[in-house]
Amino acid sequence: MPAVQQSDLDEGLIRKLAYVAAGDLAPMNAFIGGLAAQEVMKACSGKFMPIMQWLYFDALECLPEDKEALAEDKCLPCQNRYDGQVAVFGSDLQEKLGRQNYLLVGAGAVGCELLKNFAMIGLGCGKSGAVTITDMDIIDKSNLNRQFLFRPRDVTKSKSDTAAAAVRQLNPHIRVMSRQDRVSADTEHIYDDDFFQNLDGVASALDSVDARMYVDRRCVFYRKPLLESGTWGTKGNVQVVIPFLTESYSSSQDPPEKLIPICTLKNFPNAVEHTLQWARDEFEGLFKQPAENVNQYLTDSTFMERTLRLAGSQPLEVLEAVHRSLVLQRPHTWADCVTWACHHWHTQYSSNIQQLLHNFPPDQLTSSGALFWSGPKRCPHPLTFDINNSLHLDYVMSAANLFAQSYGLLGSRNRADVAILLQSVKVPEFTPKCGVKIHVSDQELQNADASVDEDDTCLQELKAMLPNPEMLPGFKMYPVNFEKDDDSNFHMDFIVAAASLRAENYNIPPADRYKSKLVAGKIIPAIATTSAAVVGLVCLELYKVVQGHQQLESYKNSFINLALPFFTFSEPLAVPRHQYNNQEWTLWDRFEVQGLQPNGEEMTLRQFLNYFKREHKLEITMLSQGVAMLYSFFMPATRLKERLDQPITEIVSRVSKRALGQHVRALVLEMCCNNESGEDVEVPYILYTLC
């Protein structure tokens, strides 16, 4: 190998490395430590591909963009826990970190690692700084192998409270506040304007795409930086969102997950994942959706109109479910719930299977002469109910209790009493039905659904059989929302029993409770090594955000897979730019309109329309707030005349049929409009302020 010549050396790089050599950064330690720990596990287990070459990693872009910003006297030791960090970035950044006010959403595997690193680097540790962490979950035993702020004694305690208490032990100076509120549209009175405007940034540690997108929208609205990250086993990613500089998290999306075909779930499962998803759908279809439909039928005067507008066979299915819940299957006692559960067991695990075999006998041949029940199609067999079979009794116990909960009835945990009740239950003998169509493929199902012509007479008869809501004053049902982590609520008991029985029907090896919880609860597998590495990368980006880096190339989105191993870093995508009337705008821009005029009166719709025509040369053709249409050019003249001289907030309240809360200081309005040439142009949204 030829000797390296002095002229080949990058003097600037060597100088930087020399300056920071005395440093010690917790995020860098977390990233390298996560990689090293995964390599140790590979050596011990022989699983995954080890790193077979030199691995070089630096984060020199974290240093100040202004090369003259750091002076030697700013990097001298202060004899405290942050000296290693001060040696790299200087004391000014350390003080700035202490003043930061951050929201951390989620206290799971990534959330715990983030909070630990925040404490290590001093984020929110100054007098005017703070970290708010929120998570509505409680600690489950299965969390302990990857969420290292929790201990066995913490099981059943609040995740956010426990995590906050743990990091106070790591760094007593951190000012951390814990909450148990989901960050969602329902809690905007908690995470309101004042709350977000006081933040310096948000870190997301969520396991739901919908929740991530909501948090992203709030950050865009309040123009706050967002540090987005996630893991899936050995895979991890980091995305940094900077106001006016990068696109947002919601600007691009991964392709949708590949779904299990409906016909496979309904009639032809061949893997335990299919039976678990079937059981999860059963839960929703038995204990949640019917209760929600009944409550809407009883309280919403537009329910019937909306239902009849649904496509295909949906109107009939919804009305049949309401009729079953209110008339055919409504229980009045615990014994009724046990009877229902027993009958449903026979329907799903015996009668439906016998009907399937009636349509497609075991020796059925296809048009090509091959056996129908071959390849991925496993030939099922019906089960016989046995009161002494613990799995059969598990199903009845859990189903009966959940059914009782949905009607507000008191259940029971006494298995002996349930066994006695089951002895008196009479189950009709199964008789095959003629004319039952069972679809073999999803394409066949879609074609059948598209061609269905709902019998209006049947719908009208069903409507006539439904009880008048006025005849059920005060009655309501209680939808059961699936919660995987509470072992006393019968939710996982039902999923495990239902999926295991379904697996037995098709001779599929069943899953244990742990795997059932993973699949049915859609739990993202997390391991500590990936969480540590990903959070290390997040906090390296945090250094840049706090310093206020303005160059797009300073930031790095990260994608890693410790198993391969694979590491890639890229600049975030720049925010897309649009134009109207030669005015450039991005998703971070908006029209800001002050709703209150100098005389103290609120702007009317007429004044609002004239304002945009005068100030922005835009003619509004449609104006909406959420799903409420406030104005459109095709609106009937009488309604338009009525609204033109009404204040905007009054129109919003009347159209949406809801009063605006006291916490609402602004409205987000959207509009379609034409420019001076009469062409339709895309424009930002409107922030209509009320104070």
What form results from the Cα inertia axes?
A: globular
**In the CATH hierarchy, what is the superfamily of the largest domain?**
NAD(P)-binding Rossmann-like Domain
Low-confidence segments, given as residue ranges, are none
Radius of gyration using CA atoms only: 31 Å
Proportion of residues in extended strands: 5-15%
Largest beta sheet: strand ordering: 3-2-1-4-5-6-7-8
What is the CATH level 1 assignment of the largest domain? Alpha Beta
Q: What's the number of domains?
A: 3
Give the name of the CATH architecture of the largest domain.
Answer: 3-Layer(aba) Sandwich
Please supply descriptive tags for the structure shown above.
23 helices, 41% helix, Arc Repressor Mutant, subunit A, six-stranded mixed beta sheet, Rossmann fold, alpha/beta, 16 strands, 691 residues, Structural Genomics Hypothetical 15.5 Kd Protein In mrcA-pckA Intergenic Region, Chain A
